[in-house]
UniProtKB/TrEMBL annotation:
<dbReference type="GO" id="GO:0003979">
    <property type="term" value="F:UDP-glucose 6-dehydrogenase activity"/>
</dbReference>
<dbReference type="Pfam" id="PF00984">
    <property type="entry name" value="UDPG_MGDP_dh"/>
</dbReference>
<feature type="binding site">
    <location>
        <position position="263"/>
    </location>
    <ligand>
        <name>substrate</name>
    </ligand>
</feature>
<feature type="binding site">
    <location>
        <begin position="155"/>
        <end position="158"/>
    </location>
    <ligand>
        <name>substrate</name>
    </ligand>
</feature>
<dbReference type="InterPro" id="IPR014026">
    <property type="entry name" value="UDP-Glc/GDP-Man_DH_dimer"/>
</dbReference>
<feature type="binding site">
    <location>
        <begin position="255"/>
        <end position="259"/>
    </location>
    <ligand>
        <name>substrate</name>
    </ligand>
</feature>
<dbReference type="Pfam" id="PF03720">
    <property type="entry name" value="UDPG_MGDP_dh_C"/>
</dbReference>
<comment type="similarity">
    <text>Belongs to the UDP-glucose/GDP-mannose dehydrogenase family.</text>
</comment>
<feature type="active site" description="Nucleophile">
    <location>
        <position position="266"/>
    </location>
</feature>
<protein>
    <recommendedName>
        <fullName>UDP-glucose 6-dehydrogenase</fullName>
        <ecNumber>1.1.1.22</ecNumber>
    </recommendedName>
</protein>
<feature type="domain" description="UDP-glucose/GDP-mannose dehydrogenase C-terminal">
    <location>
        <begin position="320"/>
        <end position="424"/>
    </location>
</feature>
<feature type="binding site">
    <location>
        <position position="30"/>
    </location>
    <ligand>
        <name>NAD(+)</name>
    </ligand>
</feature>
<feature type="binding site">
    <location>
        <position position="158"/>
    </location>
    <ligand>
        <name>NAD(+)</name>
    </ligand>
</feature>
<dbReference type="InterPro" id="IPR036291">
    <property type="entry name" value="NAD(P)-bd_dom_sf"/>
</dbReference>
<feature type="binding site">
    <location>
        <position position="334"/>
    </location>
    <ligand>
        <name>NAD(+)</name>
    </ligand>
</feature>
<feature type="binding site">
    <location>
        <position position="210"/>
    </location>
    <ligand>
        <name>substrate</name>
    </ligand>
</feature>
<comment type="pathway">
    <text>Nucleotide-sugar biosynthesis; UDP-alpha-D-glucuronate biosynthesis; UDP-alpha-D-glucuronate from UDP-alpha-D-glucose: step 1/1.</text>
</comment>
Amino acid sequence: MKITVVGTGYVGLVSGACLADVGNDVLCLDVDPAKIRILEEGGIPIHEPGLQEIVRRNVAAGRLSFTTDVEYAAKFGAIQFIAVGTPPDEDGSADLQYVLAAARNIGRHMDGYRVVVDKSTVPVGTGDKVREAIAAELKARGADLPFSVVSNPEFLKEGAAVEDFMRPDRIIVGAEDERAILLMRELYGPFQRNHEKLLVMDVRSAELTKYAANAMLATRISFMNELANLAEALGADIELVRQGIGSDPRIGWHFLYAGCGYGGSCFPKDVKALVSSGREHGHDLLILNSVEQANEGQKLRLVDKIVARFGPDLSGMHFGLWGLAFKPNTDDMRDAPSRVVIGELFRRGATVSAYDPVAMDEARRIFGGEARLRYVDRPMAALEGADALVIVTEWKEFRSPDFERIRELLRHPVVFDGRNMYEPVTMRRAGLEYHGIGRR
Ligand SMILES: NC(=O)c1ccc[n+]([C@@H]2O[C@H](COP(=O)([O-])OP(=O)(O)OC[C@H]3O[C@@H](n4cnc5c(N)ncnc54)[C@H](O)[C@@H]3O)[C@@H](O)[C@H]2O)c1
Ligand SMILES: O=c1ccn([C@@H]2O[C@H](COP(=O)(O)OP(=O)(O)O[C@H]3O[C@H](CO)[C@@H](O)[C@H](O)[C@H]3O)[C@@H](O)[C@H]2O)c(=O)[nH]1
């Protein structure tokens, strides 16, 4: 099939590359010429395990190409995926300007039947707005061309995006006409070989399903974070509690890890957007309001511990920091807890030496020439001259460090671990003072 993917970010590029990998002809469009240039030169603009190989393979096979030409893109694919950003507006609602611009471009230039598939995370009712935007463009140029609008939210996780796309748990298709449903079934056939994973529903339910999934997962995390904070006060260990409840199949093991808060481009913005949708329709979503509020506080939890240990004025102190990305295996720092931690350390007068295996370029872009932040090329180098170590992201390479060396390098043998990577007893034996989240 001929497919256009509008937006070549984490979702668009992964979707386009994976769809090409099963034999489709895919054209990826982006308005950012720098991104398209990198892709045309054989690079990829993001860090995502396995993606580079798939992109290379499919470009070489002639099934995957890139463009900034809006007209060519609208004419290329019978299926037009919209995978552009939906960042939060000032009031927390999803900003639909990019989605609607993409829809208008399609309407302006399409020259035959199109299935317009919304993969961006969008509030309920966006399907109607996309339909209206395309219809208005068609009307303006006096064209009477048939099209369908489908909601097909994406559930991939960064750092495991290729695997998630290739082997999805489910494929949600919100569509109301048979022609489009048939095309979507055909398109997703290769991704559900073992059993049926495609769930067809109405567009509004599909749109809400995406927010419901993210909000539920964010709720679990905030719930565990609150319990972790309570466990500290009660002298209990959240790790043991996690194992104790995760073994109940009604609860399950996933997304029960307490830490220094959830970040990324999705949970924070999607919880806010759902709360905002609720408010708009006269429903105050009490639980989700608290989920978000709890998470804001949790991002400061590590600094609270630092302050409890060293006092509120941290001037002259220097901290080694491991992990900048919002989670391992990505360079994404959107809403990353590290940004809050670093900002708060600066505010209190401290300086930081940071190490991250892939996100340091992104950090440089975000923090610019910030003199209080130094980047180092090895985890242990972050500890040189540091008063204490702060861990924000649980990269694999931090799992088994030389604890002895950590103790030798730090001015105070203190570790603040926002991801509960180590056992308190191991740390005690290594002569390190250990502050995890909810650990005894
Ligand atoms: N990142 C994730 O893990 C993830 C997972 C599931 C769903 N989502 C959702 O998918 C959407 C995209 O997220 P992302 O992380 O890939 O965003 P992103 O910011 O990485 O990429 C979006 C891209 O769209 C481009 N763009 C903007 N307007 C355009 C237009 N009119 N035409 C062509 N290109 C345009 C931008 O230049 C950018 O490259 C969001 O709604 C997000 O909530 C993201
Ligand atoms: O038990 C847990 C699990 C995750 N996190 C944190 O939660 C955030 C989000 O993690 P994760 O969900 O793995 O990453 P994302 O790439 O943001 O993926 C989420 O957001 C995407 C965008 O909507 C969805 O497609 C995915 O299904 C959904 O998991 C990160 O900061 C994690 O550190 C925890 O604190 N504890």
